[in-house]
Amino acid sequence: MSLVLEFVQQYIPYGFRKTPSGWLSGNCPMCIHNGQSRPDTRGRGGFFFDVDKFQYNCFNCGYKTGWSAGRHITVRLQKLLEVLGADIADIQRLKLQLATEQDVFQEFEYKTAEEEPIKFNWPEIELPKVSYAMWDWLRQLNFGYNDSENEYQDEIEYSDVVTFIKNRGFSVNDKRLYWCNNNTFQLRKRLFIPYVYKGGHRVPPILEFIRMVSEVHHVKPIIAVISRDKNIIELQQERVRGKITLNDAHRAIDEISNGYPDLHIHFLSYESLHLWRKHYLKSLNDEMEFPIAWWDDKNIDKILKPMELL
Fold this sequence. Notes:
Elements: H1 3-9, E1 17-18, E2 24-26, E3 45-49, E4 53-58, E5 64-68, H2 75-83, H3 88-109, E6 132-133, H4 137-140, E7 144-146, E8 151-153, H5 155-167, E9 178-182, E10 187-192, E11 196-197, E12 200-201, H6 206-216, E13 223-227, H7 230-241, H8 246-259, E14 265-269, H9 270-276, H10 278-288, H11 297-309
Parallel strand pairs: 13-14
Antiparallel strand pairs: 1-2, 2-3, 3-4, 4-5, 6-9, 7-8, 9-10, 11-12
């Protein structure tokens, strides 16, 4: 039996009875949460379980939800479980287990169709001229203020960066990693981990990726765009690329919308993450229907602290 079916069944209220048609019927717990002035007393709510799916329906307030193999826990199902008494932390753990279970299922069940090789034509983007390779030890160990380049190398800050790199699973000798601590270009305490393809710096092929996972693997992707303040984005783009490239981002989003109109694009705020923390993560969890451990303050602090150092 599925993890989801087992989880739901343990929270079915006492008093629900099985009918000849196979439904488990009882007083609906959702009526007063769904616009009704009084609780259900006529046994209008019902669960129906099958091998790998179930549905819930109330013939009084009209509340409907359910689940079937391959689907996520929806907002409506989560609301039902919470009203039935399920702990929010247990629901989130179920979501994470379900995501893992679905990944394994997809890996072994989906058959990759034959396709023509994808031809990449990605533009190369240069790193800032004031960035230096982490493996250039002689340069990095020359701590102190460098007046000619308006930068300051601090051994404590550098140690924090090295710790962060190791925590991310990289080696400090990885030649793809660059460090920058320049005041003029507002690149204080920045670590660059470039996206590379066959040794060069590239922009990921978003449309090709969407096509592959949706048409070949039959998985509906979740599209999210990380956003920052417009002035900050333009300043960084002009500094790093020598020009503002927001139009390229707008064009890419338009291409996604036109090519895949059924895909909802979510916009994630870097500032909101730092400002509202778990409350913002919970809103993403509910909106995207994607499991996020938003209640885990300890790990949120652990993740955000290295980002604040950089």
